[in-house]
């Protein structure tokens, strides 16, 4: 890192894997100076790694990295790289995350960090031992409407929270001809929709309401076979005609009953969470509904710039009011001048990049961190055990998360 004459700070960026998410991270770094000029952060795209020659070329010629390699170790060994974005497939996350920590590189890693609790814990231990800053790709928590929902809960505006409903319903694998990518192979992905989508939903609940202490779950595999997609030749959105059929090794759908911890901002609350990658109808219906004794609110990613809030008991007009995201919510004003002009998915990643780099510089620690990833992984692993044994399973408390806890709430004052 380098402090410039104008007081700005140049931070050397490395990227591992130049797929769609790697491109998104790169744009997020580049757009920081426009959304947050006052922070005087100047990310410098130094070194990218991808084994596919075309993607390495894209890193240099399109994304603007100064150099590119086939081996991710070249990025970790580059002395001009201060921070690393890890955007490789899930089965490489733990290996690369541990390597980045051992190399002393602060890292921003996509979820799931590991194929379950054990791998995630190994990354967390490596990060703690090396003292590096970590940030996790839980992007939905950065939506201004979600930040506002967290405030409503913390300030007691909805009363005592009684229950929550959440869903992560997508149709990217609804077609039975949908390709069998690595996401459907247990040895590569671990769980299916539990790790892929439910992990996001668990984080959303824990960020807004508090830690999940206990779960019981059910899972199902809707399509037992799919046409094989050779590694590196497409995405999990691909549809293949007359392909070689191979078995699906993990779940397409997961449902959970949850009970929140006693120290949660929504202590005593219970809820239902569902996730599916084969839902017919929803495209990306990722949402949360929070119910309290004095009101409720719900949000859906498909309309990410809206929050529906009830008028509460005794209101002249009971029911929901659509509240458009505006300058008073989260970082909305950094991207748009007023309500009705919408933010997009990419903007959530710019906010994520900002929080990551602020933490790296020792400023505000507002980023999702490896402890958040470990907490979510524990819940998912508990859900796996529950689905197999048809039992209630506990998820132990994890210190150092950003989960909404009881001391933040004003409901008891």
Automatic annotation (TrEMBL):
GO terms for molecular function: nucleotide binding; oxidoreductase activity. InterPro entries: Gfo/Idh/MocA-like_OxRdtase_N, Gfo/Idh/MocA_oxidrdct_glycsds, GFO_IDH_MocA-like_dom, NAD(P)-bd_dom_sf. Residues 147-297 form the GFO/IDH/MocA-like oxidoreductase domain. Keywords: NAD, Oxidoreductase. The keyword Lipoprotein does not apply. Residues 12-138 form the Gfo/Idh/MocA-like oxidoreductase N-terminal domain. Residues 394-404 have a biased composition (Low complexity). Gene3D superfamilies: Dihydrodipicolinate Reductase, domain 2, NAD(P)-binding Rossmann-like Domain. Residues 390-413 are annotated as: Disordered. This is Putative dehydrogenase.
């Amino acid at each position: 890192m380098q402090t410039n004459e104008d007081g700005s700070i140049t931070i050397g960026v490395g990227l591992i894997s130049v797929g769609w998410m790697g491109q998104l991270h790169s744009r997020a770094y580049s757009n920081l100076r426009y959304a947050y000029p006052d922070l005087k952060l100047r990310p410098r795209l130094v070194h990218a790694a991808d084994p596919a020659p075309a993607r390495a070329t894209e890193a240099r010629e399109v994304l603007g990295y100064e150099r590119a390699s086939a081996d991710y170790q070249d990025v970790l060994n580059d002395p001009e790289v201060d921070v690393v974005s890890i955007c490789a497939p899930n089965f490489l996350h733990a290996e690369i995350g541990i390597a980045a920590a051992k190399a002393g590189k602060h890292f921003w890693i996509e979820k799931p960090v590991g194929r379950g609790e054990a791998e995630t814990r190994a990354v967390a231990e490596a990060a703690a031992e090396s003292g590096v800053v970590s940030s996790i790709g839980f992007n939905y928590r950065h939506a201004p409407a979600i930040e506002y929902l967290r405030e409503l809960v913390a300030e007691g505006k909805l009363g005592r929270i009684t229950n929550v409903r959440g869903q992560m319903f997508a149709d990217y694998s609804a077609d039975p001809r949908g390709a069998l990518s690595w996401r459907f192979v247990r040895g590569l992905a671990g769980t299916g929709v539990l790790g892929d989508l439910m992990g996001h939903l668990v984080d959303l609940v824990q960020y807004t309401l508090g830690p999940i202490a206990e779960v019981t779950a059910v899972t199902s595999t809707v399509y037992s076979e799919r046409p094989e997609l050779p590694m590196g030749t497409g995405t999990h959105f691909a549809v293949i005609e007359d392909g070689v059929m191979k078995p699906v090794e993990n779940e397409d759908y997961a449902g959970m009953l949850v009970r929140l911890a006693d120290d949660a901002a929504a202590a005593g609350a219970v809820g239902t969470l569902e996730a599916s990658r084969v839902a017919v109808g929803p495209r990306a219906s990722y949402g949360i509904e929070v119910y309290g004794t004095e009101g409720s609110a719900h949000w859906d990613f498909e309309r990410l710039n809206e929050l529906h809030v009830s008028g509460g008991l005794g209101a002249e007009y009971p029911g929901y009011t659509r509240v458009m995201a505006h300058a008073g919510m989260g970082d909305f004003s950094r991207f748009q001048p007023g309500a009705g002009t919408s933010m997009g998915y990419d903007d959530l990643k710019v906010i994520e990049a900002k929080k990551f780099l602020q933490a790296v510089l020792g400023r505000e620690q507002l980023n999702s961190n490896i402890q958040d990833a470990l907490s979510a992984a524990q819940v998912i692993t508990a859900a796996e055990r529950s689905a197999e044994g048809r039992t209630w399973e506990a998820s132990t408390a994890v210190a150092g998360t950003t989960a909404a806890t009881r001391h933040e709430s004003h409901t008891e004052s």
